[in-house]
User: Fold this.
Amino acid sequence: METKQPLKENSTNQPTVKLENSEWSLDNFEIGRPLGKGKFGNVYLAREINTKYIVALKVLFKSQLQKCQMEHQLRREIEIQSHLRHPNVLRMYGYFYDETRIYLILEFAGNGEMYKYLKRQPNGRFSEPQTANYMAQLADALMYCHARKVIHRDIKPENLLLGIRGEIKIADFGWSVHAPSSRRTTMCGTLDYLAPEMVEGRSHDERVDLWTLGILCYEFLVGSPPFEEEKQDLTYRRICKVDLKFPAHLSTGAKDLITKLLKSRAEDRIPLRKLLEHSWILQHLSDEVRSRLPTFQIMQPNKA
Ligand code: AMP
Assistant:
């Protein structure tokens, strides 16, 4: 008889299996502790019974989604995220539903939320080497998305999770679209991460993700986003003017990269491949992160 293993969270010991099934149901899973609470429901640690594979099960209430007219957005999120396969993009293995709920079967991110991890750092900011390694992972993942005409549009610490080795996992494709998008942006929440073309309601393309990478790089290194103000109209004006101020502790290399990402005109922003070749990134890129980035594996096929 097989002994029942406790539902442990060490996903480095995950069985190497393919989690594929077109007819999932709750019967396929043992449910563990809650991992977090979202706007539309809760996320639980879960184990697929046959394979013992650990996942995160996100449970969304249909009634709440309907109330906020989010069904369309969720459908798009599922359609986009379930087709992406990159080490720094959170996998979505599948979904199922019952009368009242929708369940998303997600890759379990063992180190939780980037936002909380950032806030726990001394002075609420990361070191330059750590930030450069995060930026390289994000640039690689976004290159992969953009090659498939997927724009994320909402890269910020709240939408990033951390895997068991501390690697970045881009999650929450709720605002992502297939490029190009000429739709006007519905503004909600904070303006801090929005590119000038988005705050002005102009059409935009995948280069909005370059802007948000610049904002994220600044927030990682400084502890707050560059145009943060109490009043939204002030933030709005500072974004449109690219009114950028750097604290004294930032290196020339970090400032150079941020300045090259935060360009008002999308066509002036440094492309992702060039970001990966930027001297500040290369100076800090660890062998471990480099060895996991698909772009570097393609560029150096013979490197062990
Ligand atoms: P969300 O509804 O996506 O905002 O998720 C709510 C919270 O659940 C997040 O803030 C995380 O703390 C946690 N969470 C969501 N997805 C995962 C995951 N795939 N792995 C680990 N924790 C997660």
